[in-house]
Amino acid sequence: MLFLPAAALCCLCSALVAMAAQLIQDQLSLTRRVGENIILSCGGTEQCDKKQVYWYQKPETEPLTVILRIDLNDGKVNSRYNHPQQVDFSASRKQHGCELTITGIKLLHSATYYCVCYKSVAHRSSDSNRYLIFGSGTKLYVTGERVVKPVVSVYPAASRAHLEGNSSLLCVASAMFPPLVRFSWNRRKENEEKWLPAEGEQLELRESGRTAAILLVDGDALYTYKYRCSVQHEGGTVEAQTEQEVPALPPSTPPVALGPSQYQVKLLCALYTVLIVKSLVYCCGLSLLMILTNKRPSTN
To answer: What is the DSSP string of 120-171?
Structure first.
């Protein structure tokens, strides 16, 4: 068994908690021209410790850098982080969140922007028991290209998982700009109209011009379900026009009792033959030893 030091366990627990808590950035991407202004939003900040939120910038090939910090209690902004374009950024409070404003957009502003804050572990108030929680990020594209919604298609994905009572569904988004999308799945019972969020393991594959998501779902023993794929994009949410059906699992049949095969019978016969020969050899050797012992001259 693997035993981790106490410090490592603390870090692991903090990481797991941080994965469960996340700030809300609903804007997946934004496209603007040079010289325009833009507002990025961040929600879910009521869980932030000390009500302080940081905004970070992550260009494509450069490290993550802090832009500014805003205090949600009084709205004060601290921009003394030596960011090269700090005069272009400002921040403000809003209900349950904050906003970052970029004025006079330049090509240098092409990057992904994250809102970040500290969150304390429950029932602990010391600084050593705080961890960072991030938003999902908003990517800014500075270009004159217009936004194009994706074309969405859904297919059954060929997989051996069908043999194990599972099914896999494939959703493809293509021909869109910008290329960033977010997939979601809904399902309903065959004879019902209400759609509910679908659960299952999802894998995303990205290549030039398209993005695909594969959803692995468990088959239901009683009901047939229909699945539908939706894609969130800067141009709006697009739903697939077709639905995919996952049939109910067939009733299980009891296993059929099979008799021993011909190979097993031959193997048992050979085993018994060897045992019998060994017994005969042992008996013959014992009898010969007794005969030789009886023929020896007795000495008084």
So the answer is: EPTT--SGGGEEEEE---EEEEESSPPPBPPEEEEEEPP-GGGGGTEEEEEE
Per-residue pLDDT of the chain (300 residues; tens, 9 = 90+): 333 333 333 343 334 334 445 899 999 999 999 999 999 999 999 999 888 999 999 999 999 999 999 999 999 999 999 999 999 999 999 988 999 999 999 999 999 999 999 998 766 555 667 899 999 999 999 999 999 999 999 888 655 445 466 788 999 999 999 999 999 999 999 888 899 999 888 999 998 889 999 998 888 888 899 999 999 999 999 999 888 888 888 776 665 555 666 767 777 777 778 788 778 877 887 777 778 777 765 554
pTM for the full model? Answer: 0.72
Residue 168 CA to residue 190 CA, distance in Å, equals 18
One-letter amino acid for residue 247 of the chain: P
Q: Residue 33: CB partners within 8 Å, gap ≥ 6?
A: 105, 142, 143, 144
Q: Are strands 138-142 and 29-32 parallel, antiparallel or unpaired?
A: parallel
Asked if 67 contacts 86 with a C-beta cutoff of 8 angstroms, the reply is yes
CA distance 261 to 163: 26
Do residues 141 and 30 make contact, with C-beta atoms less than 8 angstroms apart? yes
CA distance 80 to 68: 7
